[in-house]
Amino acid sequence: MGKKFSCHKISEGVAEGEALLSSDEIMFYLIDPKTGVVIEPAHALEGQSMAGKILIFPGGKGSSVVQADGLFQLNKEGNLPKAMIIQYPETVLVSSAIIMDIPMVDKVDKEFYETIKSGDRIRIDADAGTIEIL
Fold first, then answer.
1. Do 127 and 29 form a contact (C-beta atoms < 8 A)?
2. 14 burial type by CB count under 10 A (0-12 exposed, 13-18 middle, 19+ buried)
3. What is the mean pLDDT of the chain?
4. What angle (nearest 5°) sits at the alpha carbon of residue 127, between those of residues 105 and 132?
5. CA-CA distance, 124 to 46, in Å (whole number)?
6. Closest by Cα among 13, 27, 38 to 69
7. What is the tally of helices (H) and strands (E) in the chain?
8. How far apart are CA 21 and CA 113, in angstroms?
9. Which residues, listed in sequence order, are joined to residue 55 by a DSSP beta bridge?
10. pLDDT on residue 65
11. What is the three-class DSSP state of 32?
12. Residue ranges of the chain with pLDDT lower than 50?
């Protein structure tokens, strides 16, 4: 098995999949709900899909209405991320993750951010407070 890191559970659940790492905050309203592709110009993930990926990002941006609606539209189209690893959680993203059953964690070991790359296969067990790079 790979390297394990500790984390703090925000929203329960277990997920395994491909990591998608963003250095930029995400406005979920600027993601195409039909594809999960980031359409925000000049964003670190512009042109990439987060659908079915484990999204690793600093935090959200924009008003709570556009954040919640963006996630709702992705959910409606079946293009939500499998899980989220967030550095700076905020109320609307936390409540949306809980309502939409998206495992979400924060307070991850600093070494994780120095090690993880987009495309790595990872497993999050929010309930056990662990992330493993497979």
1. no
2. middle
3. 96
4. 65
5. 25
6. 27
7. 3, 8
8. 9
9. 20, 84
10. 86
11. coil
12. none
What does the alpha-carbon distance between residue 67 and residue 93 come to, in Å, rounded to a whole number? 7
CA distance 17 to 48: 16
Q: Are 24 and 126 in contact (CB under 8 A)?
A: no
Q: Which helix (H) or strand (E) holds 57?
A: strand 54-57
DSSP string, 58-112: S-B-S-HHHHHHHHHHHHHTT---SEEEESS--HHHHHHHHHTT--EEE---HHH
Query: Residue 1: its pLDDT value, please?
Result: 57
Q: Which residues are catalytic?
A: 63
Tokens, residue 103: 């495992």
Radius of gyration of the chain from Cα atoms?
13
